[in-house]
Request: fold
Amino acid sequence: MKKLKHPLMIVGTGSDVGKSVLAAGFCRIFLQDGYRPVPFKAQNMSLNSYVTANGGEIGRAQAVQAEACRLDCHTDMNPVLLKPGSDKQSQVIVNGKVLGNYAAGSYFRGEIKDILFTEVQKAFRRLQKSYNPVVMEGAGSIAELNLKNTDIVNMRMSRAVNASTILVADIERGGVFASVYGSIKLLEPEERKQIKGVIINKFRGDASLFDEGRKILEDLTGVPVLGIIPVFNHISIEEEDSVSLERKATSALDNKINVAVIHLRRLSNFTDFSRLEQDERVNLYYTNNTEEIKKADIIILPGSKSTIVDLIELRRNGVAAEIIRQSRIGKTVIGICGGYQMMGARIDDCRHVEGNVDALPGLNILPVTTTLESKKSTVRTLFYFKDLEEPCSGYEIHMGQTKREGVDALNRLENGQPEGCRINAQTWGTYMHGILDNPVVIEDLLAPFPQSKTPSVSYEEFKQNQYDLLANHIRQNVDMDLFYKILSE
Reply:
């Protein structure tokens, strides 16, 4: 196995500067160059998660980065995952399993951080035994001074494993000189030594116009600027941060199959719709505007980390009533995970898994009832959609059990058990995340519409091509000779 002396760590001047995507790109570069890379993020905060082969739960970004490495994902790649249930509380998942719900104040004051940091280091060492390099990702900004004492994901982790650390800044935001200089200067002297280079991301226009800026930054920080990476629109990589939803479409278009995803406040796993979003026949958009919902050909109720709270909000803003109306006039309405639960007759939470509401009526579109339970179900599985014989794949992440009443199941699991519910061809619900990644499901969903005649492309092949495009884009705009020298010296 070819080896580099140091792990690579990608950190940022803030959130959503492009750390996850760049980490995926470097994973693919290392793979192309004959190494055996593996992704790692000590602690992730995200409602977009994925299930490993052994039933553990990790952040979706590390699953994407594992794909770029052509690896199946593992819980060691993201040993601590935080899933916010509200503004003040998160579910804490350690090594793929739920540890418990923690108030934000308690967690970030570090009451369990030493225990978690021990687990994080163990996970890293396990990966390091079989892979090289480990491609690490930081979280948010490296200069959050109020959180540094309990940090387990940024510079504390970098120092613990002596990672060659690259600072990424988003020039689109403005203030790139202040953010780079300030981020580095606010570090402790020993932490600054870990910063080996800077990448300026999302540049627009002629990069040569930043030549003077590059020199200014290098003189100010004493750290080389390894590259100026232009913003791109020709590459599609699944994004994890919910901030990216703000950049997605929000309205219907003519001459397309319009798919409206209801924009829930606690929407989870929006990567369920990445495959549909790339389909040239489809205009997929996120909305809670009733006029845009009326224009949709297909309405999707997505997953939610707080199903009851989101359902209450849908009733308050009129979206629930509009979805019911559209279903009654024959529109295609489907639900995934929390959305499936909402489509039923009732959601019971007598154990107060989500909050203080004992029970809530659902939209009553599907004849199912859901009981929320404290035990989380996380499983990856094969299944058969409707009555089709082609196997499909998906994964479940939910804390409820849903019972059908006198109607057909949607899917048949590989063990023969029924799953989900359908009352007709255009109205169904399922717990199966990733169901819309399967071509047979996509073609069945789009079949009633005249635009559906274009054959679909393999989504797996599409994604792998995107990782290659991303790797090429980075190579063209980063000093790779200096980059490899930094990792080897």
